[in-house]
Specification:
By secondary structure, this protein is mostly helical. Helix content is about 70%, strand content about 0%. It contains four helices and no strands. The chain has helices spanning about 10-30, 35-55, 65-90, 95-115. Helix 1 packs antiparallel against helix 4 (about 95-115), helix 2 (about 35-55) runs antiparallel to helix 3 and helix 3 packs antiparallel against helix 4 (about 95-115). The longest helix is centred in the middle third of the chain and has 26 residues, at about 65-90.
Length: about 120
């Protein structure tokens, strides 16, 4: 179980991205036949967490904050693509579906962050 963030930098997208790291790890456990897909998915999920946290250290509206949120946003879409590839490769477990649902939520939230909502 992942521990939620705390303090002033706490926000839902960050907490969900931590959950996504776990979900991708669980899903990727069965992807042995798809080359480096599991590693790519794990690294992209971790990138979301790190960039959301780093971006939150900057003042709202700053170019640095926006840049880190943009990277997190792109990584969220990368995780969705990894999960799409896994599904097209025949993987459709409960873990895969849970990770896909969570990835969609994180992608939507990071979209809102980069659009300034």
């Amino acid at each position: 179980m992942t521990k939620p963030s705390s303090g002033p930098a706490r926000f839902v997208a960050y907490d969900l991205s931590l959950q996504l790291v776990t979900a991708v790890r669980l899903a990727a456990g069965s992807w042995r036949t798809v080359g480096d897909l599991a590693d790519q998915g794990r690294r992209a999920a971790i990138s979301i967490v790190l960039n959301l946290r780093e971006g939150s250290a900057y003042l709202s509206g700053s170019p640095s904050r926006r840049r880190f949120f943009d990277i997190a946003h792109a990584s969220a879409f990368e995780v969705e693509a990894v999960l799409d590839i896994a599904r097209c490769s025949g993987f459709d477990s409960v873990n895969d579906r849970a990770a896909s649902a969570l990835a969609g939520r994180v992608a939507a939230m990071t979209t809102a962050l980069v659009r300034g909502r």
